[in-house]
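For the sake of clarity, the format in which proteins appear in this thesis is described at this point. The fold follows as a row of integers, each naming the local backbone shape at the matching residue. One such record is shown here in full, so that the layout can be seen directly:
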Amino acid sequence: MQVYLPIAEVSVNAFLLLGLGGLVGILSGMFGVGGGFLMTPLLFFIGIPPAVAVATEANQIVASSFSGVLAHLRRKTVDLRMGTVLLIGGLIGAALGVMVFNYLKSLGQVDLLVKLCYVVFLGIIGGLMFIESLNALRKSKSGAVPKRKKHTWIHKLPLKMRFRTSGLYISVIPPLLVGVAVGVLAAIMGVGGGFIMVPAMIYLLGMPTKVVIGTSLFQIIFVTAFTTLLHATTNYTVDVMLAVLLLVGGVIGAQIGAVLGAKLKAEQLRILLAIMVLAVCGKLALDLLLQPSELFSIGSGGH
């Protein structure tokens, strides 16, 4: 069943979009990531222009993350205080990111920037997560108890605050900076930023894995909603038809993902996520390196 997407100006199979939304929703519930880092490149692959994919995907992440958060709130695995600190940073970052996006769009360079950002970030993060997850799996098999690093430079920073749900007493500066970085990425790449925030919360802030997923999703909801609003009012690149189809699939998928995530070990979840990140990174890098089938295309930027 083909549907015409007015803003993207292409026709796409509705069931394909529902399926993609469902797949990303499952990932959202399982890993605490908005899923945009996979969905946005998948939209590129089926012919959606990058500027439209980025703005519309931010919209879909709001719904799948909200659905995932509800499941985590029932289990009391959301640190609302930490989520709020991350959120303040995220809103600042999102506003900065949309300004950069608009400037590049006026130069006609936004499509290339978005794809390059994906290749770089997915490659680095996927590689680091894969190595770390393998080490964690090895340790769990050998029965070694993983040591928690108690005091790092982060614990020496000022403006400390107690985060009871996470069992932490740390400075608010690192969570704020993580939030800003994620906000910028949400605006430029159409991602919730969970694929950066989840590792940062575990390794940088030292939060327990079971609390990280729900807290990450809580912050993602608001930052991506704000990003969508900015894109819709400044760029007019949000395709409502595309968003609705992805939303329906995403909300259903997130509930399934939350149930599946509870059944797997943290190390297994992280290694699965790392493999998926690297696979998408490889496909995008190939697309950038290989000669396109049509050498000339009419760009939407800069008009």
Remarks:
- The two ends are 32 Å apart (CA to CA).
- The chain is about 70% helix and 5% strand.
